Amino acid sequence: MLEFLTEIGNRIINGGFKTHLVVYLISLALGIIILRLVFSKLLNIIAGKTNISYVLLRQIFRGIPTLLGILIGLYAAMEILTIPPRALLFVQRLFHSLVILSLTLMVAHMGSGYLKHKLGKTSKNFASTSILATTIDLTVYAIGILVLLESFGVSISPLITALGVGGLATALALQDTLANLFSGINILVSKQIKMGDFVKMSTGEEGHVVDMNWRNTTIKTPTENMVVVPNRKIASSIITNYAQPFAECSISIPIGVSYGSDLDHVEQVTATVAKEILQETEGGVKSFDPFIRYSSFAESSINFNVTLRVKSVTDQHFIRHEFIKKIYVRYQQEGITISLPK
């Protein structure tokens, strides 16, 4: 096979440089297209057999098929074609550089992709964790550049020393920025907060965490506004995370009925309505059995609380809305009086 390809390569060269270049570029383009199609099929198969989304796999292997096609083309050119010594040296150095670049890109994409998969809300709908992705990418790219320089015979020891001194000066000048950076990394690595979690801060801000970059955390409020909070504030604030350890939560709805009511009948009707709401309303936990607990004798009513369970804290408002409407109508039908406060 190699002899056959060598013969074809020599014929191309004998046919002229222009013909050789055109045929080589066409072959390279076709090879890249074929590799991209093969990678696309493989990623579809992997996504179908695992819980990793196809979009995430595309991000991890972004640019790799193209670089791999170029590498195969350069290797074939060095092995098959007769190239002048100076041109061959250039091609060899280019091939070596592209190998390092390909490995660097793959490691960087795999590192940031793995973190997105692990720290995102789900693998199919992962949210942005730009702080960690950026940190991983910059670290891997810096190492790749140093390895590339070392392969070309450039001494990197003075460069590392200069970077160390410059890094110390930068750290002193950017204390607040670095505090936000490391606070954000610590929060994500410790899994106190994940992308998509619904949180409430002690200062009153609440909403879904949609992004955490190198300086700020962005929270999307229920009113569709964006609240930007420095990572330092997140790390030092008292936060209620409604999505951990699990998203489901119980809600309590207070009701008061008049004295003289049949409490067993009130309990039975209320529990029936509550169960219907959980079964019929989006956001209710269908397997949960709601219950009521009488709490006090008030001045004009006997008070109790109805406990229901919702899939997430954001579902509670609609569940309350539907329950109050339905229980009011059912109480009227059953002759149960809701006491008015005096």
**Structural category:** alpha+beta
Total domains:
3
- Approximate shape: elongated
* Major sheet attributes: 5 strands, antiparallel
How much is the radius of gyration in Å?
32 Å
Number of helices: 11
Strand order of the largest sheet: 4-3-2-1-5
From N to C, what is the helix and strand string? HHHHHHHHEEEEHEEHEEH
Q: What's the pLDDT, averaged over the residues?
A: 75
Q: Distance N terminus to C terminus?
A: 98 Å
> Fraction of residues in helices?
55-70%
**Can you tell me the residue ranges where pLDDT is under 50 for at least 5 consecutive residues?**
4-9, 121-128
**Residues in β-strands, percent:** 5-15%
What's the total number of strands?
8
> What would you call the quaternary organization?
single chain
